[in-house]
């Protein structure tokens, strides 16, 4: 019998500063990691004030993870130790597997009006792949297909498959799905997901009902003001929704449309040792990584 996933928990993204001084909203990170395995972090960088983002993310290392950058508006200049360099434009995706180690930089520039908006997702790698050769996949907007479904639901398929449309990112260790979904008003969107996989949604714009219960008290909501006695079962912009297990998700709209990222992946179930841009399984592996970075032996593959 097919079961529709229910909401397990809802968070509101929180302002933070990262890199050399980039103001952003953190939807997922650190203390939430055990709940979101295999995902580690989701940042929403959205500003039309260039001083909030122009300092960017200068040269820094990564090991043991994959970083996925998706730009909605603006431009991000980038370069890395493998010799890749260029600009991530509006609608583009950079899917970078750090593996054994990569050093790179990402410098947001915004668009001609000064708007910069995008997301960075970190996905963990299992111990068996922590030290794999790094690889880089840069996808321009035209390479990311859109599936048009019943009710004029539109889905940009970055990774995974929906309505017979496959995303361009294949052969990823955690078997992820990464969809950018837009649901018009008065419409229901359903999508099968693999039982046992972790599934979450992040609301980009609008609002919707993310499970059929429509019961605001059936799950925990984190980050609300305890003086606010109104609890709405609709989830709006900058809400992060974690699902329980099941075979499918169902999202319904009323007067407003909703746009959201829908992400899923196979949990790894291993210890996480995390410091800054490096994520390993043990503190000893972290020590070695930082020692190698200081000695100049961090990069294993060029």
UniProtKB/TrEMBL annotation:
Residue span, Pirin N-terminal domain: 22-122
Domain called Pirin C-terminal: residue spans: 178-298
Cofactor note: Binds 1 Fe cation per subunit.
Cofactor: Fe cation
Superkingdom, natural source: Bacteria
GO molecular function: metal ion binding
UniProt xrefs under CDD domains: cupin_pirin_C, cupin_pirin_N
UniProt keywords, alphabetically: Iron, Metal-binding
Residues that, per the record, bind Fe cation: 60, 62, 104, 106
Similarity comment text for this entry: Belongs to the pirin family.
Protein known as: Pirin domain protein
Organism lineage: Bacteria, Pseudomonadati, Thermodesulfobacteriota, Desulfuromonadia, Geobacterales
């Amino acid at each position: 019998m097919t079961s529709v996933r229910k909401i397990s928990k809802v968070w509101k993204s929180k302002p933070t500063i990262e890199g050399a001084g980039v103001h952003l909203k953190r939807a997922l990170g650190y203390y939430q990691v055990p709940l979101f395995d295999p995902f580690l972090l989701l940042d929403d960088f959205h500003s039309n004030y260039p001083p909030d983002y122009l300092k960017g993310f200068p040269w820094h290392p990564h090991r043991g993870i994959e970083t996925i950058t998706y730009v909605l508006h603006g431009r991000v200049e980038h370069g890395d130790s493998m010799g890749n360099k260029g600009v991530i434009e509006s609608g583009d995706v950079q899917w970078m597997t750090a593996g054994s180690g990569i050093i790179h930089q990402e410098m947001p520039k915004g668009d001609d009006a000064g708007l910069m908006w995008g997301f960075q997702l970190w996905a963990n790698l299992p111990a068996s792949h922590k030290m794999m050769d790094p690889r880089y996949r840069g996808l321009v907007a035209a390479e990311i297909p859109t599936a048009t479904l019943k009710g004029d639901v539109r889905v940009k398929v970055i990774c995974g498959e929906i309505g017979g449309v496959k995303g361009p990112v294949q052969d990823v260790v955690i078997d992820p799905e990464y969809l950018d979904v837009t649901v018009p008003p008065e419409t229901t969107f359903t999508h099968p997901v693999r039982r046992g996989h972790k599934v979450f949604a992040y609301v980009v714009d609008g609002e919707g009902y993310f499970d059929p219960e429509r019961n605001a008290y059936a799950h925990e909501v984190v980050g609300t003001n305890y003086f606010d006695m109104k609890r709405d079962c609709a989830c709006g912009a900058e809400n992060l929704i974690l699902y329980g297990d099941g075979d499918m998700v169902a999202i319904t709209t009323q007067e407003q449309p909703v746009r959201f990222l829908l992400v899923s992946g196979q949990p790894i179930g291993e210890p996480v040792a995390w410091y800054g841009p490096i994520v390993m399984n043990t503190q000893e592996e972290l020590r070695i990584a930082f020692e190698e970075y200081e000695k100049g032996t961090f990069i294993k593959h060029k």
